[in-house]
Amino acid sequence: QIRDDVVSLLADGPLRGVKAVVTAGPTREPLDPVRFLTNRSSGKQGYAVAAALRDRGAQVTLISGPTTLPTPPGVTRVDVETAADMLQASMQACADAQLFVAAAAVADYRAAAIADSKIKKHNAELTLALARTDDVLATVRQAYPALFVVGFAAETDDLETHARGKLQRKGLDLIAANWVGQGRAFDQDDNSLQLFWDGGQHAIGHASKAAVAAELADVIVARRAKKL
Amino acid sequence: QIRDDVVSLLADGPLRGVKAVVTAGPTREPLDPVRFLTNRSSGKQGYAVAAALRDRGAQVTLISGPTTLPTPPGVTRVDVETAADMLQASMQACADAQLFVAAAAVADYRAAAIADSKIKKHNAELTLALARTDDVLATVRQAYPALFVVGFAAETDDLETHARGKLQRKGLDLIAANWVGQGRAFDQDDNSLQLFWDGGQHAIGHASKAAVAAELADVIVARRAKKL
Predict the structure, then answer these.
(1) Is B154's CB within 8 Å of A117's CB?
(2) How far, in Å, CA of B44 to CA of B190, rounded?
(3) CB nearest to B124's CB, from A126, A127, A132
(4) Does domain A2-117+125-227 have CATH number 3.40.50.10300?
(5) Nearest C-alpha of chain B: how many angstroms from A33?
(6) Which residue, B76, B137, B74, B69, is CA-closest to B103?
(7) Among B128, B137, B152, B162, which would you mutate to test the A interface (most chain A Cβ atoms within 10 Å of its Cβ)?
């Protein structure tokens, strides 16, 4: 850890002077005081991206849903629970940032109403009314047009189609897509990513999440240089 | 840990020769390959109960939902994910057991159908069809009438009424009730319990989950002696 701190302090990389905001982990959307809806994101890939950007000289704020991971040294961490919390924290942190990497698996749906007391199990069936959460990526993108914005897409099918659709629809600069389900990516130590941008793509082969994050950070540096 | 192992091997307590099954932690009910419904149980109280029963000489099998806790030394652990998994593992483990303590926060509802691929967020609102999970406590109780069965009730209101209702309805020998929500019990290191049985009750004051588990184990030993 001391070594990491020193690396961070000495970092004179291509992102020196850049303020970067990274989101990571799942969100939890409460149904009542004890139950919630969530997903299998461990936060590992996002934490590794935060460390990789720090290693390239960026000043990094990591906005994290509930995980069991230690904070990367030299990174400022903000803990959140719900998608609404994550949006608020992201909007605040991005106000003076130049780079936003949204690696969190933010819930798309929350309970339409949160019950004050524990829902009793009187019925054999129950329909749960869900409402869309506010879109963190799209909201941040619209609020800060000059920000370099990187999104993630976790897909179980039609990877490139879904990822390029999201890239265009949300006006992202870069999207990192990966396959999930059947034990892939989520909660694993290894990952692989397909990067897409307007007019190009780059494949990051199966490797540790730290190695994948390092390669992603290098592509971000290169793509950002083209845009500047 | 070596000390714990020795204590376990030497244990010559009131539960010597007794096979005990303890469930702990939350369950996860998948909606699709990445999303799931769960609850705030950390598993700490159940793990502490497993250790307390071991300390009193029992041979303990701990059936655990997803937690980040280490297995108590000398305890056999079986990992499960869903309520259906927990029922199957409990039925199997209880076949030759004398004591069953169901401390897990088993999901009451699961998705009526699990989507094969990730649910896309096309709609602003979504209704999720849920179906009741099979009742682990009631099923085990009916299958093994001679088993001493201890249930838990986590309530946000009307503690005694809800707990005694569950005690009667499921034919339990003892029920341990606690308040949850607003940061109480779930994911905390301390707890307090109200124990109820047919014709009696006992309050365990606020203490560490290990101390609460020790007192609960002593009441189980005493109540079981009355029944034998």
Answers:
(1) no
(2) 9
(3) A132
(4) yes
(5) 5
(6) B137
(7) B128
- In this prediction, residue B185 carries a pLDDT of 65
Distance CA B201, CA B164 (A): 10
Place of tokens 């939902």: B65
Q: At a CB cut-off of 8 Å and minimum separation 6, what does B138 contact? A: B169, B170, B171
Q: Which tokens in the block code for residue A68?
A: 């069991």
Query: B9: pLDDT confidence band, cut at 50, 70 and 90?
Result: low
Task: Give the per-residue pLDDT at A188.
Answer: 81
Classify residue B74 as left (phi > 0), alpha (psi -120 to 50) or beta: left
Q: In which element (H, E) is residue A155 found?
A: strand A148-155
Q: Are A178 and A105 in contact (CB under 8 A)?
A: no
Beta strands in chain B (DSSP E): 19-24, 29-30, 35-39, 59-64, 76-79, 99-102, 109-111, 125-132, 148-155, 174-179, 190-197, 200-208
The ipTM assigned to this model is 0.87
CB-nearest to B34 from A36, A40, A68 is: A40
Beta-carbon contacts of residue A216 (< 8 Å; ≥ 6 apart): A49, A52, A176, A193, A195, A204
Residue A191 appears among annotated catalytic residues:
no
Domain boundaries, chain A: 2-117+125-227
**CB-count exposure of residue B192 (10 Å: 0-12, 13-18, 19+):** middle
pLDDT of amino acid B130: 92
Residues of chain B with pLDDT > 70, as a percent, come to 91
Tell me the pLDDT tens digit for each residue of B199-225: 999 999 999 999 999 999 999 999 999
A189 beta partners: none
Instruction: Please report, in tens digits, the pLDDT of each residue of chain A (228 residues total).
Output: 555 555 555 568 999 999 999 999 999 999 988 899 999 999 999 999 999 999 999 999 999 999 999 999 999 999 999 999 999 999 999 999 999 999 999 999 999 988 777 776 677 788 889 999 999 999 999 999 999 999 999 887 889 999 999 999 999 999 999 887 666 666 788 999 999 999 999 999 999 999 999 999 999 999 999 987
Structural element, H or E, at residue A9: helix A2-10
Pick the CATH number of B2-108+122-227 from 3.30.505.50, 3.40.50.720, 3.40.50.10300, 3.30.1330.30: 3.40.50.10300
Q: How far apart are the C-alpha atoms of A143 and B206, rounded to whole Å?
A: 48
Closest CA to A220 of A55, A71, A77, A95: A55
